[in-house]
Amino acid sequence: MKFSYNQIAGQNAERLAAMSDGIFAVAMTLLLLELRVPARDLVHSEADLRRALTALSPQFLVYVVSFITLGIFWVGQQTQLNHLARPDRELTWIHLTFLFAVTLMPFSTRLLIEFLAYRTALLAYWANILALGVVLYASWGHATKAGLVKEDIPANVPPAICRRILIGQSLYAFGALLCVFNTYWSIAFIVLVQLNYAIGLRFRKKRA
User: Fold this and answer.
1) Which of 5, 10, 70, 76 could form a disulfide with 92 if both were Cys (CB 3.0 to 4.6 A apart)?
2) How far apart are CA 208 and CA 196, in angstroms?
3) At what angle do helices 157-177 and 57-82 cross, to 10 degrees?
4) What is the pLDDT of residue 107?
């Protein structure tokens, strides 16, 4: 019985997860390189240093937001991979597209840091987040339709994964729309969304 190359390519979920871990680690590290230490020739006292560090606070905030963003999407991707019985060639390339969007995050972060008050920079940053969400949603859709998920997966898991992505992207979209009024409002709302996904659900679980 003959098999085509496409039928046997890209079927190792462990290698895909390992590659993803490496790319996420590099992207998260590159985010830190976008922060700049205050210029030495501009600091002549403790007060000067405090003012310089205060001036860096918006940049640090964007760095934190981007780091949490990548963390959230890393968890999302790993959740999907953990429920796969096996990938196929199409799913592997979908995840490679997802990782391409991950590698863009340092650039969109730097763009937002440099042009924090500009709507175009904020929308470019949001477009990066949108791309991550759309591709991650597409990967899960393909995995479920192609029968690549584990047979013993609980029935409530697939819709829960889809629902989390859709709700998250809806909230990010609302945050992006706030830039019509003020880009800082957008960033503040996105921070709240990130905090909810990073720690909010954990707090609710503890109270339950």
Assistant:
1) 10
2) 16
3) 160
4) 94
Helices 89-114 and 13-33, interaxial angle, to 10°?
10
Q: What is the mean pLDDT of residues 113-136?
A: 92
- Given a contact cutoff of 8 angstroms between Cβ atoms, the answer to whether 175 and 189 are in contact is yes
Four-point Cα dihedral 145, 146, 150, 152, nearest 10: 50
How many Cβ atoms sit within 10 Å of the Cβ of residue 111? 19
Q: How far apart are CA 162 and CA 39, in angstroms?
A: 46
Q: Which residues pair with 149 in a beta bridge?
A: 84
CB under 8 Å to 184, separation ≥6 — which residues? 116, 117
Count, residues in the chain: 208
pLDDT tens, 21-75? Answer: 999 999 999 988 777 776 777 777 888 788 777 777 888 888 888 999 999 999 9
Cα dist from 35 to 62, 88, 170, whole Å? 10, 39, 29
Distances from the Cα of 32 to the Cα of 26, 64, 99, angstroms: 10, 9, 19
For residue 37, what are the contacts with CB-CB under 8 A and spacing of at least 6?
none
Please count the other Cβ atoms lying within 10 Å of the Cβ belonging to residue 74: 18
For residues 160 and 189, give the distance between their C-alpha atoms in angstroms, rounded to a whole number: 23
Query: Taking the domains of the chain in order of start, what are their residue ranges?
Result: 11-207
pTM: 0.82
What is the tens place of the pLDDT at every residue in 4-17? 545 444 455 688 88
